[in-house]
User: Which sequence fits this backbone?
């Protein structure tokens, strides 16, 4: 049987889902992750949810196209509002901004009590997002990072527990990625470092207050990245 082809990013997110769990995919878009996981026999059932009717209709079309209506249910939902406690054991939220994901997790707290794992791929404010997880009783147990079309995507698996990182770089760039000396993270850090140093050099010619502020920010970013890159020298 032919298999759905999905992007490297979605494949990496799907690989984090533990076998045998019922999946809730929030912001399911085309429904690709549940379809892919059902086809692989990795999960028994899934609930695909989105706040917008358009993506949900696309997801339904794809589910029908692959003949998986008996395995994947679609629901119109703002975050986790249409999910009952105990209906799913694994939550996937991929491709949203960090602050929006924080809101979804905060509002959905009663439903999350029964979740065995959260697979999360925030697109922005990633350091703050890791801190949010720590402050809300979650522990990151696995992390991965992929590059696709010149963009970098970190992702993580979190479970209930306590997490207390000692370094800022661990929140910013991911303690598990740093401990693994993940090659994609290194590539990202080196690329960002070159860009920051280049910009800093240009800004030394400028003496406005906004340029001074930007220089300070860049110097702090460079220090944080140096702390992260030090893991690769160990």
Assistant:
């Amino acid at each position: 049987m032919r298999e759905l082809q999905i992007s490297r990013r979605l494949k990496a997110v799907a690989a984090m889902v533990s076998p045998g769990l019922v999946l809730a995919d929030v912001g399911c878009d085309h429904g690709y992750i549940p379809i892919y996981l059902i086809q692989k026999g990795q999960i028994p059932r899934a609930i695909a949810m989105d706040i917008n009717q358009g993506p949900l209709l696309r997801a339904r079309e794809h589910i029908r196209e692959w003949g998986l209506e008996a395995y994947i249910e679609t629901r119109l939902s703002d975050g986790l509002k249409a999910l009952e406690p105990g209906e799913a054991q694994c939550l996937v939220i991929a491709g949203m901004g960090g602050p929006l994901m924080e809101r979804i997790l905060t509002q959905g707290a009663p439903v999350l009590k029964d979740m065995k794992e959260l697979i999360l791929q925030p697109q922005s404010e990633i350091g703050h997002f890791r801190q949010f997880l720590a402050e809300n009783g979650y522990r990151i147990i696995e992390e991965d990072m992929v590059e696709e079309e010149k963009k970098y995507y970190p992702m993580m698996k979190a479970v209930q527990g306590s997490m207390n990182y000692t370094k800022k770089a661990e929140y910013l760039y991911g303690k598990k990625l740093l401990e693994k000396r993940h090659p994609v993270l290194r590539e990202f850090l080196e690329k960002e470092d070159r860009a920051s140093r280049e910009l800093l050099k240009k800004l030394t010619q400028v003496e406005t207050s906004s340029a001074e502020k930007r220089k300070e920010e860049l110097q702090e970013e460079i220090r944080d990245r140096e702390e992260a890159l030090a893991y690769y020298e160990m």
Observations:
- The mean pLDDT is 95.
